[in-house]
Amino acid sequence: MLHTVTRSPFQSHSLAQCLQFICPGDEILLLEDAVIVAVSKNIYFDLIKNIGVKIYLLEADIIARGLQGKCDKDLDVIDYKGFVLLTEQHDQHMKWA
Q1: What is the pTM of this model?
Q2: Among 29, 34, 58, 71, which lies 20 to 30 A Cα-Cα from 94?
Q3: CA neighbor of 53 nearest in space, from 22, 88, 82
Q4: Are 62 and 68 in contact (CB under 8 A)?
Q5: Would you say the C-alpha torsion 19, 25, 30, 35 has a positive or negative sign?
Q6: Looking at residue 73, what is its pLDDT?
Q7: 11-19 long-range CB contacts below 8 Å, 24 or more apart?
Q8: Residue 62: is its pLDDT beyond 90?
């Protein structure tokens, strides 16, 4: 399953709720304000770093928030084409907002 999270964990519980339902083989795409999680050395980054699933960030949202070069290098940054490919690879999709 592909889980997309759009809200900052500093303003919403959507990421915490998402993490409660993660299963092996799932993937997470952080969009919009949720990309703030990828900035190293915050409590939410520590939660996702060791969750055991692949985590992606949308490049356009990183740029829009001025976070280029500030996100952890272990997370994969994808463009809109990569976003489309992710949705094609997963039969199920859950949006956490």
Answers
A1: 0.91
A2: 71
A3: 22
A4: yes
A5: positive
A6: 85
A7: 12/97, 14/96, 14/97, 15/44, 15/47, 15/48, 15/96, 16/47, 17/96, 18/94, 18/96, 19/47, 19/48, 19/51
A8: yes
Instruction: Quickly list DSSP for 31-87.
Output: -GGGGGGGBSSSHHHHHHHTSSSEEEEEHHHHHHTT-TTTB-TTSEEE-HHHHHHHH
What is d(CA 53, CA 51) in angstroms, rounded to the nearest whole number? Answer: 6
CATH 3.40.250.10 describes domain 2-95: no
User: Which helix H or strand E contains 18, and what residues bound it?
Assistant: helix 14-20
Query: Per the structure block, which two tokens stand in for 4?
Result: 């997309």
- Binned at pLDDT 50, 70 and 90, residue 56 comes out as very high
Length in residues, the chain: 97
Work out the widest C-alpha separation in the chain, in whole angstroms. Answer: 33
Beta bridge partners of 56: 29, 76
Q: Residue holding tokens 């519980």?
A: 13
Is the CB of residue 83 less than 8 Å from the CB of residue 58?
yes
